[in-house]
Amino acid sequence: MLGFFRDGTAVALILFHALMHIAAADEEVVLTDHFLVQLHEGTDEDAHQLALEHGFRSARKVPFGEGLYHLYPQDIPKTQRKRSLRRHLTQDQRVKNVFPQEGFGRQKRGYRDISNLDVNMSDPLFTKQWYLINTGQADGTPGLDLNVAEAWSMGYTGKGVTIAIMDDGIDYLHPDLALNYNAEASFDFSSNDPYPYPRYTDDWFNSHGTRCAGEVSAVSNNNICGVGVAYNSKVAGIRMLDQPFMTDIIEASSISHMPQIIDIYSASWGPTDDGKTVDGPRELTLQAMADGVNKGRGGKGSIYVWASGDGGSYDDCNCDGYASSMWTISINSAINDGRTALYDESCSSTLASTFSNGRKRNPEAGVATTDLYGNCTLRHSGTSAAAPEAAGVFALALEANPDLTWRDLQHLTVLTSKRNKLHDEVHQWRRNGVGLEFNHLFGYGVLDAGGMVKLAREWKAVPERFHCVAGSMQEIHKIQSGNKLMLTITTDACQGKDNFVRYLEHVQAVITVNASRRGDLNINMTSPMGTKSILLSRRPRDDDTKVGFDKWPFMTTHTWGEDPRGTWLLEVGFQGESPQNGVLKEWTLMLHGTQSAPYIDQVVRDYQSKLAMSKKEELEEELDEAVERSLKSLLSKSN
Asked: Which of these is catalytic: 33, 145, 167, 371?
């Protein structure tokens, strides 16, 4: 661990450090030509001179830590070995520390063409954008959309909000994007320059970022392509995906780029969706995320929107450390008739859903948006399409209330997302202990822009957040096929201490487990209020026998708002045809939430004044009942 990092979220961050060990064990280590160095002292010019002397193209100061510089390689690889580079840098008296950057895979989410189609450019594609206003186009279900029309009618179009598309670049010369392009907030971390234009390929593979940008910020009423969800917002391009391997420093630099100008970061990528990878952010990226939610947007927190993944029923997005992070809003997708897309992953960390392409290969059932070189497309798809739509909805909410924190937006998402006409053929819709309706695949439902904007306008910031280690089991427990391992932790949620958690937000089960076949593991956890979360589903393509999960933080949002005090049940077993065995070595329960009730501050204040004058236990019970009544009233109002 690098010694120069400090932040206020140490409890959560320590748990996330385990992600690095999983990834390192799962992948073959690949050394890249990128280096992170820490100088004893010196200016940017000194760092640039150091880079040139050692055969690098340039040096860029990174925004975290003291004296840290990213050394960019020459365009033409040198024959000098990377270990030799490290040795020469280490021996340079100007250099305090050298951190070689390992390469690892990151995959764009969404290349699923539904059909080839000659787009008629004489008219805008707005009528094809069923996810904005669904009248039944392309065999869809009328009314199943993002309800942006209501938000627009109230005057909210994303004005004053900047969304960064972290991807393979943006065609910022596109006539449907140029007027909304924020050049100041854009950067190319793949080639270290301020021009994140996509690299040309014959197959147009690098159209991904441009398509995502159009969903958010395409200009309205200009007779070009379609309309962005937040069509008066600004869009920034952060080019960071287009190189043979991803590195920790490129991810961290992208996530932490201009956090006082960029409001929302949209990411439609992640670890490979092959159903056997367990991976997540490395140390620098974790620190950048922690800094973002603590310091971004003037302390209100950067908003990170993440596509949940395209691995389908073969994968589980709780094995993706980006989508399952508490600091991100993980978004899944539905198709235009309310069903799941075949590539949708399910997991308990997904917060909500938007839309992507349909199953019937209808040429107009895809997502209409901008494409490279001034073109338009109807073929954007996957959860890649879902995340930018969510970023656009959040931009509308931020325009309605610029004071919203990163946690406020998560609460608004939980409260205003709707079941609408979504239906999951595998998992039922259920209600948690405080009456919130959720689904294992869709989260709390499809985003409702009108409902979110209305609630955002009168929203008061949620109370301070606390972290409680509710309990931990370190004993070794054997797991056998046919016999579920059942363990319990009874907790008071740190009651009586400064970090008492009474109303839940996120819950993490930090688990270390090995199995004869990792993919056959199934893990469920039930809260004291009776809400069962599926922490891990079977992944039939995962044949791992050695690595397992090492302090992996499985996360659930399904217990949002519940009282965590009482007994938590963990169930671990195997699913599959062949007998398997395993060993559970650790289960640590982490609770994150508030001490006072969100949403109903006045009710709480009234009862707190009475507590000082009356019997405490009786009034506490009365307070709980009042909280529940007020929450149900708020939910019915938002619906």
From this structure: 167
DSSP 8-state secondary structure symbol assigned to residue 63: S
Q: Which is catalytic among the residues 348, 384, 533, 537?
A: 384
**Cβ–Cβ < 8 Å for 370, 348:** no
Looking up tokens 């049940």 gives 569
- 319 DSSP 8-state letter: G
| Residue partners of 116: CB distance under 8 A and separation at least 6 | 379
Answer yes or no: 208 catalytic. Answer: yes
| Local structure of residue 596 (DSSP, 8 states) | S
Contact 129, 226 (CB under 8 A): yes
For 274-324, what is each residue's pLDDT tens digit?
A: 999 999 999 999 999 999 999 999 999 999 999 999 888 899 999 999 999
Q: Does the active-site annotation cover 193?
A: no
pLDDT one-digit tens code per residue, 130-164? 999 988 888 889 999 999 999 999 999 999 999 99
CB-CB contact of 476 with 584 (8 Å): yes
Name the pTM for this structure: 0.85
Distance CA 417, CA 444 (A): 6
**Catalytic site residue from 34, 48, 208, 558:** 208
* Paired tokens of 291: 């800094």
Distance CA 44, CA 50 (A): 10
Is 27:102 a contact under the CB 8 Å cutoff? no
Q: Show Cβ contacts of residue 479 under 8 Å, excluding neighbours closer than 6 positions.
A: 485, 513, 515, 572, 573, 574, 581, 582, 583, 584
DSSP for 127-156 reads GG-TTTS-SSGGG--TT-S--HHHHHHTT-
